[in-house]
Amino acid sequence: MLKKNMLSIGLMAFFVALISFSSCKKDSGPSYVESVMLIDSISYPDTVSISDELPIQFYGVIGNGCDFFSRFEDVELDNSDSANTLKIKIYRKTEQDVACTEEQKYLDNAVLKLTGMGSGDFFIKVVQPDNSYLEGKVFVKQ
Predict the structure, then answer these.
(1) Is residue 35 within 8 Å of 92, Cβ to Cβ?
(2) CA neighbor of 56 nearest in space, from 139, 136, 118
(3) CATH 2.60.40 at 33-141, yes or no
(4) Strand pairing class (120-127; 133-141)
(5) Is-contact 83 118, C-beta < 8 A?
(6) Most C-beta atoms within 10 A of its C-beta, which of 10, 36, 47, 66?
(7) What is the pTM assigned to this prediction?
(8) What is the pLDDT of residues 117-132, one digit of tens each?
């Protein structure tokens, strides 16, 4: 009887350990790598009033079926930048270790609406993957 109970306890411990071990292995979903997108062009009005929103639309190829728009990121201004400047990076994420379609994906509806610019020239600087800039300028009137 004691031998049978020990065998039952041993089997129970084995199954508890097996369940615990298998429950620790969690699938966290697909993994992604982020990179700065190449922006082909930007569109914006030539002039806005200081009280108006400034819409800036960004255009470019995101990539293939494994690439997705990720985020906008403000970049810190340096000494050569005017205080009235938007410096920004636009990121895409690429899904890793999966088969991708060759479908080209384009950046659509990527619009920033800015407020609070100072009057005068407002500069737009979009950081490219090679650290060059795509630049634009808007006049903000009083």
Answers:
(1) yes
(2) 136
(3) yes
(4) antiparallel
(5) yes
(6) 66
(7) 0.75
(8) 999 999 999 999 999 9
